[in-house]
Design goal:
With 652 residues, the protein is of the alpha/beta class. It has 25 helices and 16 strands. The chain has a five-stranded parallel beta sheet. A four-stranded antiparallel beta sheet has the order 3-4-6-5. It has a three-stranded antiparallel beta sheet with strand order 10-11-12. β7, α9 and β8 form a beta-alpha-beta unit.
Length: 652
């Protein structure tokens, strides 16, 4: 048998590779790594293992195959891996190691590699290994003790241990580093993303401020969280449509028009439409007290708008368009853009009437004292009001019409509403009504709820506009930066840098905990460069960029990564490798804190590693290896910051 194998290796390398690729049990990812064949204990199967290295000849050709595989990010290895439905060998290099472990166990467990792959977990105790599986979950007959004796380490899995009923596996870190960093070098800003949602689409309804009213804390949270939900879907291969559903309709706009005639200024309107319209709205509201004629005029004006009066609509349209233009400028500052600016005004009466007719025909809606309602008390959802006595529709009615129009236009696989938990009843009623209407896709509708923000106001305690918040954070960041005059003087564009760090401070403070939790807007803590803050993350990214600029070396994708043997280097590579997992997890949880927690851990490991593993002043080969590792960390951190909606800073 040895003679036959030697003959294959020496004279028919291509045939061996083809055999391995098409083998019924192609565990042979090991082929390209160690290049040594070993006959398995089962008939007709060939495995690669380094055990017989000293008994083989002519291995130089196989070493060449190793080099080719790594230069191709392990893509040749992928051809030899077991086909596992949930494994993404192309985009998640840890899945290569999981696939091999799953295949190893399936040889003895009587279960498919697919089944075992799902049972593998990241070890909670890194001292024991990187992957673990609870043997009782395999539901084996008999006592599964001493299973470790059945499994042989290979070039991918260097250690296999058993602790009670848990099997633990340790990766080959040199091999992981080679495959992973080559992959990141190819993907760069696309590292971490996958195509699991390819062919699917979703709509995200978020931000949704009211024209002529302050942009309050709830709108800011909706903007930040909704943008994340959009980004994380794109990162998982979905087509995502970001929709800003403005509060732009109702009697208040009749009141606003009356107020503008009395208190408005074209000059101020063009300068800052949102703030000026709010000032007008406050003044006209104040004049209503003791003057019922004003309220009546507002109703009459809005009735003209509803009836399609072009003069009335022209003024409203002007308010709306100027406000959207201003919002777009502010959103751009936040690194956020919407695909669609919609609003209550854009929903057709036909859509609402169609929905109401269905509800009546199915005896879901009923009249009560002249109004139209849906009694949802048996679902513990109270009574939903759809139409007032005078025929006026309500927010819920418009939402029903809106979602029907959206499905007709986008045929989405999911639709998300990023709105505070205070609106939970509203969305439960909306989704239940869709179900009762017989809408087959009602379960594609999700409410992304979140808690309240306490203490978010300007230092003067005045009404909060988004621009006020951003200006305040920029000024506060300037104050922090000026505390170190030397560094401050070296910043190329301090105003831009202060703005980006300030925005990062706000957004990371918002996304650091579970969405549903309330939190206090802390002006002092969020600007700290220490602890888990936005400025800390930006500093970590800028520090890694500085190493690349100042080390005097080019990024070398062929660096000798076998030199990265220190524990901190291994920890860093392992953490970088987990990023694709985190992106998938974030899509499942729709929690921004999933990403924030990960990058905080990444930055902590980077900080520890930088204390001892220098690039500058180190022998060239080792310096190149470390530089490539730090570069990969920087790419990963930058990609994650962008996923959260932040602009990574290269200098600060």
């Amino acid at each position: 048998m040895i003679k036959v194998i030697r003959h294959f290796v020496k004279h028919q390398l291509n045939r061996v590779q083809n055999y391995l690729v098409h083998s019924e049990k192609p565990i042979l990812a090991d082929f390209s790594v160690c290049g040594i064949l070993k006959a398995s204990g089962k008939k007709g199967s060939l495995y690669f293992c380094k055990d017989w290295t000293d008994r083989m000849e002519e291995t130089s050709a196989l070493k060449l195959a190793v080099k080719l595989d790594h230069s191709n990010n392990g893509n040749n290895i992928i051809k030899s891996l077991p086909q596992i439905k949930d494994a993404d060998y192309e985009n998640n290099k840890l899945d290569i190691f999981r696939g091999i472990v799953a295949s190893m166990i399936s040889e003895f467990a009587g279960k498919t590699a697919d089944e075992i792959f799902k049972l593998l977990e990241v070890s909670r105790n890194p001292e024991l290994g990187d992957l673990t599986i609870a043997l009782p979950r395999l539901r084996l007959s008999g006592d599964p003790i001493n299973w470790v004796e059945k499994l042989i380490p290979n070039e991918y899995i260097t250690e296999i241990s058993q602790a009670g009923y848990y099997l633990n596996f340790r990766y080959s870190y040199p091999l992981l580093a080679k495959i992973l960093l080559a992959h990141i070098y190819e993907k760069k800003e696309n590292y971490g993303i996958n195509q699991s949602g390819s062919g699917k689409s979703c709509v995200i309804d978020y931000s949704s401020p009211n024209i002529a009213k302050p942009f309050h804390a709830g709108h800011l949270r909706s903007t930040i969280i909704g943008n994340f939900v959009k980004n994380v879907h794109v990162a998982n291969g979905w087509k995502a449509i970001g929709l800003n559903y403005l509060g732009d309709w109702g009697k208040q706009y009749g009141l606003l028009a009356i107020g503008f005639e009395k208190f408005g200024s074209e000059e101020e309107l063009l300068k800052n439409p949102i703030k000026h319209l709010y000032d007008v709205y406050v003044k006209i509201n104040a004049s209503i007290e003791g003057n019922p004629d004003v309220d009546e005029k507002a109703r009459a004006y809005f009735k003209k708008m509803e009836d399609g009066d072009e003069t009335a609509l022209a003024l409203w349209r002007k308010f709306r368009e100027l406000s959207i233009k201003k919002y777009m400028e502010t959103y751009a500052r936040l690194n956020i853009d919407f695909d669609v600016y919609s609003g209550e005004s854009q929903i057709s009466n036909e859509s609402m009437m169609r929905a109401l007719n269905i509800l009546k025909e199915k005896n879901i809606a009923e009249e009560s004292e002249g109004a139209l309602i849906v009694d949802l008390t048996k679902y513990k959802l109270d009574v939903a009001l759809l139409q007032k006595k005078d025929g006026t529709t309500l927010y819920l009615t418009r939402d029903i019409g809106a979602i029907l129009e959206r499905y007709e236009k986008y045929e989405f696989d999911a639709i998300y509403y990023a709105v505070s938990s205070q609106q939970e009843l509203h969305f439960k009623q909306l989704f239940k009504i869709l179900e009762l209407m017989g809408i087959e896709w009602f379960d594609r509708c999700k409410h992304i709820n979140f808690g309240m923000v306490k203490g978010m106001s300007t230092r003067k305690g005045t009404a909060v506009f988004l621009d006020d918040i951003l200006e305040q954070t920029k000024e506060s960041m300037h104050e922090v930066m000026r505390q170190n005059e030397k560094k401050y003087s070296q910043v190329d564009n301090p105003d831009y840098v202060a703005d980006i760090i300030g925005i990062s401070a706000i957004m990371i403070q918002d996304m650091s905990a579970k969405r549903i939790r309330n939190y206090s807007f802390d002006w002092t803590r969020m600007f700290s460069f220490e602890g888990d803050t936005g400025p800390y993350l930006q500093y970590a990214h800028a520090r890694l960029c500085s190493i690349e600029r100042n080390c005097g070396l080019e990024i070398n994708p062929s660096a000798n990564l076998d030199l990265l043997t220190e524990k901190s280097a291994i920890d860093l590579i392992n953490m970088i490798a987990q990023y694709p997992d985190v992106i998938k997890s974030a899509k499942y949880t729709l929690e921004p804190c999933t990403i924030v927690t990960y990058i905080m851990k990444l930055c902590h490991i980077v900080s520890v590693t930088l204390e001892t593993l220098y690039v500058m002043g180190t022998e060239r080969q080792l310096a190149e290896a470390r530089l490539l590792m730090y570069w990969a960390a920087r790419i990963t951190l930058g990609n994650a910051l962008k996923l959260l909606g932040l602009k990574p800073l290269e200098r600060m």
